[in-house]
Design brief:
- Residues 60-149 form the Methyltransferase domain.
- One of its GO terms (biological process) is methylation.
- This is Class I SAM-dependent methyltransferase.
- The protein is an alpha/beta fold and 237 residues long.
- The chain folds into two domains: 1-36, no CATH class; 39-158 and 195-235, Rossmann fold (3-Layer(aba) Sandwich).
- Helices cover 35% and strands 19% of the residues.
- It contains eight helices and seven strands; from the N terminus they run H-H-H-E-H-E-H-E-E-H-E-H-H-E-E.
- Strands 3-2-1-4-5-7-6 form a seven-stranded mixed sheet, with helices on both faces.
- Helix 1 packs antiparallel against helix 2 and helix 3 runs parallel beside helix 4 (70-76).
- The model has no long low-confidence stretch (mean pLDDT 89).
């Protein structure tokens, strides 16, 4: 799963026993050589689905990490792109690769923007927020968007109980909950806390008009439905 340039098991263990912020600061120099970086296939499928809805002006990558989301924002946004994350280490890696982007360190539950962006995206970040924290995140993104602005992020369909991924993700979440029971500060990262319909309801409560678009390029479930969809949340105006 890891390239030779990726972290060792010891480094991953140290990260897992740290806080979320400290853990990503430690992992940052090798993050792009791990399977945790959003795959190019997901980014390309997202860009393809968003292309007919653009072009957009200024773009925002929420929980940007080392900047993978630029692969989506670059071709769609004709103005300044901004990435926001709370890990100084991840931002340092992103800034080194793309000094032309505005990299901002902030807690995304308290985004420091108001009506600035036409498009906001996020990749692989929702698992870092407990369900009770998502309303603050969504309200901040809503506030950061211009009237008519769009917030988009991919979301995987639930794995069937017969899938090995179902049991792998369940085991990971149980291990993380056990870790957070006995150690502080917690490391919040859960894969099974992101059901589609509650998230759509939370986005609607934040003031968005919500919908989804399938991402068929990422595969289909045995019943024919897409393995992944793109959540589309539009600010009124």
């Amino acid at each position: 799963m890891f390239s030779p340039r990726g972290p060792s098991l010891r480094e991953l263990a140290v990260q897992a026993l740290s806080s979320v912020e400290d853990g990503y600061d430690l992992l940052a120099p090798k993050f792009d050589h791990t399977p945790f970086r959003t795959p190019g296939s997901v980014l390309d499928a997202t860009a393809e689905a968003l292309r007919p809805l653009g072009p957009f002006g200024r773009g925002l990558d929420v929980c940007c990490g080392t900047g993978a989301g630029l692969r989506v924002l670059d071709p769609l946004c004709g103005e300044q792109i901004t990435g926001v994350d709370f890990s100084a280490g991840m931002l340092a890696q992103a800034r080194g690769a793309r000094p032309d982007v505005a990299w901002v360190r902030a807690d995304v539950r308290e985004l420091p923007f108001r009506e600035e962006f036409g498009l906001a995206v996020s990749f692989g970040a929702l698992g870092h927020f407990l369900p009770a924290e998502r309303p603050a995140l969504f309200a901040g993104v809503h506030r950061a968007l211009l009237p008519g602005g769009l917030f988009a992020f991919p979301l995987s369909a639930p794995q069937p109980v017969t899938s090995r991924w179902y049991w792998m993700l369940l085991a990971f979440d149980l291990a993380m909950r056990a870790r957070n029971t006995v150690r502080r500060p917690p490391f919040v990262m859960y894969y099974r806390t992101q059901p589609l319909h509650p998230i759509l309801d939370e986005l609607a409560a934040a003031g968005f008009a919500v919908g989804t678009a399938p991402l068929p390029a990422l595969g289909r479930r045995p019943g024919g439905g897409p393995l992944c969809c793109l959540v589309l949340a539009r600010k009124a105006g």
